[in-house]
Fold each of these.
Amino acid sequence: MRHLWLVVLAACGPHLKTEVIGTRPAAIAPRGTPPPTTSAAIALPAGTYDLAIWFDVPRSQHLDWTLACGGVEQHGQLGETFDEYRVHRLAELAAAREHERRQVAGVTSLLVAAVAPHASTATATVAVDPDAAGDVVANAAVDPRIAPPPDDVGATRYGSDVRIDTTITAPCALSAATDDATVTGSFRITRIRDLDAEARAVRAAATARALDARASFAATLVAAGADREARQRRIDAAIAIREARLDAEAAVRARFEAEAAARVAAHAEIVARVHARAFEVRGYYETWLVGTCHADPQARARRIAARDTADAALHARTDAAIAVHRHQAELALALREQLRGQLIARGARLPERVDVAAEPMPTGVDREGGREIGVPTLIVPIVIDVHPRSIVLPVHRPPPPPKSGPTVRDHRKP
């Protein structure tokens, strides 16, 4: 709860300000008598105020107070009767007496527990109970009779807090009707200022003054012959001109869109007629070619079908050849692994591994025309399966060199 109040105060603090206006005495009159004619009233301007009121009474009693501020009165009652005061005063004295008795009993029990002897016989052990001893001593030491002193009649101070809101400047006074004429009272006035509200009020007053001044100046100008409606007519004329320009622009835009739509429709119609005429001429020529020249209208379709069939057959043959080559390669690798295992089983030693990336690829040389042409050499393994000690011999077979000149000689004489 403490943190909550801190947050609320932090949020409300910047725009609220408190000012202590002053303290004034209250007008006290015994019951049944009119209040005094002279009252310490204080004039308060319009605003919000917190009033702390208090009364010093010589004995317990009820008092009725009245707070009159700006023609508005607030009433309240403070205090209690002497019988009510005696009830709760006796309860307070009883609680204090019980507290004192418990303190005496506690101290006595500690002392008894520290110094009390223990008596033992052949059959039993006798000991002193410190708590029981403390209660006995406390009951004997503390007077059980409870009675307030003769002069304890409930003299005290009664207080209360009141908040008022005034709309006009008016005096504010506090009066009270009591049982004793010796009762005294006072009230302290604290003004609660809402700075934001005051700033808004100042701005509103300034705005009102500006509007009044403007209206007065306008009336002066009209009295001197000025036209009050001239500015409004200029504004209306400017608005009319702008609306006319917008209407003209809208009409031009609508006409342009209509012309564009007409051009698009005309072009679409021309394209449709051209296509229709083209299909008509095409049909005429197809009929003439088939009827007069005995042309075959399905020849092109058959050629396309034949081409598709040939392409499919070529793809099938290619796939078959690839499958055969893949199968041959797999057989060669399997045979190689088998032969390698046999050689290792007979004690053969594996050759050192050659780094293919570091070794240059063997090349063939073509010296035709006095030029050296580097040609990659293909290494084709040949498997010779003659006896159990079959080996694989690499044979270097260079591919045919690229053609660097004409392949057919011209024997004609120049």
Amino acid sequence: HTAAMTGTGLQAAHADSTVAKASADARTEWPELARFIAQLTALRAALPALRHATWFNGTAPAPTAHPDIEWLDANGQPLSAEAWNHPHHRTLAAAITVGEPGHAATERVLTIWHASDHPVRCQLPPGGWTLHLDSAHPFTAAMDCTDALALNEPCVCVLVQPLLVP
């Protein structure tokens, strides 16, 4: 009985220690989590594409304009049904082009979801983009991108491309 009691006592002490460490770790992570949430909130407030209140329909408001949403694969190509259903394709993007209600879009927003530990080089649509959010490295300063974005771990990225407004 003594061995069993000692083992149980050690397990309980280990469990208490683990809970205490997890609580201490959580306390040190809360300020960074709050900072990340503030970053997301500011980005959503700044970009109409991240708070669009109606369903997207995939059409453009004018023949020369971008559609309100385009689903893309990691190669920057329209997302096919085959790519959508492929079990190993774990990266997709949405290029969203909407303005404030009643106004033309002033930027395109590219949101990329990468759900794999395998690195992927994600081809960006043509033009200059600025990376505003990379959930794998949330406090990195905004960075200009023109061709492709290296995704080396699971993440969500938000890029913005200014549009010329007539």
Amino acid sequence: MLSSIRGNTLIRILLVLFSLFIFAGLFIIAGYFFIGVSAPELTVPELTGLDIAEALKELDNIGLVGETSAIISTDTTPIGKVVSLSPPPGTLVKKGRHIILYVSSQSPSISVPNLIETKLVEAENILKRAGAEIGIGELMLGEIVSVESDSPAGMILEQSPAPGTLLASGSRVNVVVAVDKKGNFMPNLEGMRLDLAIDTMSARGYSVEREPYFTTAWPEKTVQSQKPAPGTRLSPNIAIKLIYAVPPSPNAYSSEDFSLKNTSETYPVEKTEAEKKNNEEADEVQ
């Protein structure tokens, strides 16, 4: 009987210890959750009067993200200095919050957007939107340099000037783009501006033949089709041909275009609705 009592006592002790263990675990989990939810927020620092680079660095050091926006200075504030912030200094925000830095400028400027880890085919539209959103023009793609990388082909690895730099409308942003280490593949250039498409292939060491296609279905001087097709593995001496759109008028076919090809060649022309109607009426008369 004594052994039975001892056995029951041991079971009770084990149950109590197990319950304490469960309670302690729940208490620790609840503590972590409470601390995570109620963690103190960050205070937006006072950055007025600082240089752009210094202000961006200070925000980065405390876990906030700075974005620049130019305003025309109407007082004696030196050019390139932070005039104000949004949200203002002293505001409590969470880590990672974007803080807009309004910077003094002599003329309207565009803040260079971050193109890193975006696709080259998307970069041009991103640059255009950067200026369009504040109504002062647009930025353009500049030099395109290709390097072998483990990153997906066509991804932008570097850019110059850096994100946040203030530029005048019409300025160019140079980029470094990844190409596959296992071999070059033909990118999708359809819909891209002709000059950018040529720069893309030239940066990879390929010469490009251009062929016009008279049409109104595509914006002027944009790539309508390409040879070889997107995704084709490119050999070192492969011929690249870009078929690009031009308005259905011989006057729009510049002397530069004629100098690139044999002018005796004929090119496909998209007929206008009026031309199609005239041809139908002529057929009926015959």
Amino acid sequence: MFGKNIIYPSEILAKRGLRRTPSPDLMSMLTSEGILAKVNTKEVYSEVTIDLDDLIGTGDSDQKIRDELEKSKYKSSRRRLAALTITNILDSDPNATVIYFGPSVEDSKQVASLLLMFGKSACHISAETSRGRREQVIREFKEGKVRVICNCELLTTGFDAPRISHVVIGRPTTSPVLYSQMVGRGIRGKKFGGTDVCEITLIKDNFKRSGIATEEIWEMVGELFLLWKENSNTQAA
């Protein structure tokens, strides 16, 4: 039923004469009916500063931003921030299951390694991981044997684990489609085998661009995050 339209099931919307463009009324309706989980959002801030003036409009901006993250002297502290954020989630909720999206395969791998050092059950998978190993990790994640699964972009689509309680996004993007795919991994409602509440944590960097404030730059990902913020409890760490 969900397929590629996991966030806004088309047949459900059609029955109500609703369009697929997200709106506060749409989010509220789907949440109240248990189709979507209620979303609580949280923001944690890294020490990374990226100047966008030299990046925007010069090809693949997303890739250039990720390249800058990999070159930042604060990349290690950013990964530690991600791992500590996930550790706090696991410590505060014994039933939590977390999916982490990193800005690179190496980042995902390092965050998983840090979590293991902290004594947490976590695995990293990527396109380089053998098919058999990927299937094993995903199966153990669904069974609750692995509580955290770390990846870069591998699990944005074609991945079905309805009972994800937390999504931690460390992968900056200006694409509303990619952002919605990442968030969509966790917001299936209880009516369809998901959860009542999904916690979305966004790791935010300091993006600088002439004449534009950092918060405005983050809002360039489109209306989705703003709508979730309007329909959820948002906290800043």
